[in-house]
Amino acid sequence: xxxxxxxxPEVLIIGGGVIGLTIAxxxxxxxxxxxxxxxxxxxxxxxxxxxAGMLGPQAETDEPGNMLGLCVESRIAYPDFASSxxxxxxxxxxLDRSGxxxxxxxxxxxxxxxxxxxxxxxxxxxxxxxxxxxxxxxxPFISPEVVGSALFPDDWQVENRKLCKALRRYAxxxxxxxxxxxxxxxxxxxxxxxxxAKIGIDEIKSENTxxxxxxxxxxxxxxxxxxxxxxxxxxxxxIMFRTAKRSFEHVVYSPNGYxxxxxxxxxxxxxxxxxxxxxxxxxxxxxxxxxxxxETIAPQLSGLKIADKWSGLRPRSADGLPVLGRLVGLGGLYxxxxxxxxxxxxxxxxxxxxxxxxxDGVDSSYFDVFGPDRFRAANANG
Length: 382
Ligand code: FAD
Ligand code: GLY
What we know:
Layout: E1 11-14, H1 18-29, E2 35-38, H2 47-50, E3 54-55, H3 66-89, E4 100-104, H4 107-122, E5 128-131, H5 132-138, E6 148-152, E7 156-157, H6 160-173, E8 177-179, E9 184-190, E10 193-199, E11 202-205, E12 208-211, E13 232-242, E14 251-254, E15 257-261, E16 266-270, H7 284-297, E17 308-316, E18 323-325, E19 333-337, H8 343-360, H9 366-370, H10 373-381
Parallel strand pairs: 1-2, 1-12, 2-8, 4-14, 12-19
Antiparallel strand pairs: 3-7, 4-6, 5-6, 9-10, 10-11, 13-16, 13-17, 14-15, 15-16, 18-19
Bound molecules: flavin-adenine dinucleotide and glycine.
């Protein structure tokens, strides 16, 4: 008998990134007693660690719709999420509500941002255009070439690495069992119900299973069941500068990249979007491009030494949208993956949605939109 054979959790969560950890916390807060997380590496050290921590649905969205709705709901949940986590764990996840600026360097940029501001304000969201001079008053280090900017006061940021630490501590403090360096190879499918997972030669039986394995989701076999969900890793490289004190108030986007200023003087610069399989590394070309992008936003950054660089794998589904919910005909299994560019932002709402479905049997209306069955329909039609 292996170490897992005697464990029978009510909920088994595969993947200890921000999504799996947040779901575990939400389940525990709703009274679930036996929760197990199985993580192939160390919790919170993959995409959730590599991220920039922006909570920026408005800055990254060119159209209204369900995805924006879900993102805005999750952003609204953040202040309570941050303060509860602080009370529960003593870790401040540094929710920063200074807002986000999207800079324009040309008339075309201005026109594009004006369109975005216009439909967003019509939809009741907080957004405004400001002039180049006003942008420089708000952020003195930005380039003299900036001719205008969109301002999104409700697009915030959080220290995602501290968020992962806080969620991990919550698990430790509340009896959530976490097994690290344990890789699930396959789910156990008994007559159309997932009843657990295989870990090496061992097995863990569970009443419910949540697949929160990020970019690796479709590498996990689901017995003989042919799951339609395909996940592609999209590599994001970032670099970081360090200054003595914080030099920017806002998160600052340009058409070629973004700067995320942290309280301690770090300036994160992101990010590439590359199809590079599961290879996490920094390339000279990307580091050069990111450096240029930072200097275009703020020329005074030129000459600063790169203090750190890293990369991570965003989980992208076939249509780029999250995969939340169940497959018809397969009991006991919930998908919570495919958060692509917005997993930090979407963590609170994802956690709540999945936990409510498991504990209260209430499926979110978002399951209709983001459920895994949409790919089955697409495959059949195509
Ligand atoms: P992960 O954090 O990757 O966690 C999945 C976990 O599952 C991993 O720890 C992995 O080891 C584990 N796992 C995989 N397979 C198995 C297995 N077989 N058995 C056991 N465990 C397994 N999002 C934002 O909201 N805002 C941002 O500003 C932002 N910036 C980003 C910048 C970059 C450069 C990158 C790369 C991403 C960014 N993202 C951002 C996206 C965000 O990081 C992801 O959407 C989010 O982290 C996904 O969380 P996750 O828990 O699904 O994935
Ligand atoms: N959301 C920012 C990124 O994925 O790079």
